[in-house]
UniProtKB/TrEMBL annotation:
Domain HTH luxR-type, residue spans: 144-209
Modified residues (4-aspartylphosphate): D54
GO molecular function: DNA binding
GO biological process: phosphorelay signal transduction system; regulation of DNA-templated transcription
InterPro entries listed in its UniProt record: CheY-like_superfamily, NreC/VraR/RcsB-like_REC, Sig_transdc_resp-reg_C-effctor, Sig_transdc_resp-reg_receiver, Tscrpt_reg_LuxR_C, WalR-like
Species whose genome carries this gene: Saccharothrix tamanrassetensis
Cited SUPFAM superfamilies: C-terminal effector domain of the bipartite response regulators (SSF46894), CheY-like (SSF52172)
Keyword RNA-binding: no
Keyword Ubl conjugation appears in the UniProt entry: no
UniProtKB keywords: DNA-binding, Phosphoprotein
Name this protein carries in UniProt: DNA-binding NarL/FixJ family response regulator
Domain Response regulatory: from-to ranges: 4-119
Domain of life of the source: Bacteria
Amino acid sequence: MSVSVMVVDDHPLWRDGVARDLAERGFEVVATASDAASAVRIARAVRPDVVLMDLNLGGPSGVEATTMITGSLDGTRVLVLSASGEHDDVLEAVKAGASGYLVKSASAEELVEAVNRTAAGDAVFTAGLAGLVLGEYRRMAATPDEDKPQLTDRETEVLRLVAKGLTARQIANRLVISHRTVENHVQSTLRKLQLHNRVELARYAIEHGLDVEPEGT
């Protein structure tokens, strides 16, 4: 089944061009929108798998739209596609519930991969941006938090790799354990943290400043 996508951007040429490119690559582009209010309204009506969201919409921001969409549509994930790579913008998007963040300078191949991975439940960031967010929150880890659920060393290692965006099979190869063992660790961690999926798991790692280094550092 093809992945259904909605494209939100206030620049018609860019919006239509992205929608056309995705459709030509096999995605089902079910809707487009030019502002936050219509994005939320249309997303609730068509329930796409992925909303490709710009942040600067000339009024209420894409962050606000992301908050409303992710808060009301369990099956819809938001992938930010923005011209900005600023730390604060990335951070706010993640806090709003975005599953990933891609800058508009990304290639068509990178965009296609990011949409597919977002639909599959992965957390996707343009190279370097995850490090910015993780670096900010890492300072929070210096303050002991007795209320934090206690994870085993292996669960913490798997959590780090999930936050980097690795798939379960890649994690299994990295740690030289079985795919099933990785899934068991992921499910155990989800239960301990009272989370529902890998996107929420990656967001937890970011927001709680776990010692996670992005690939390539």
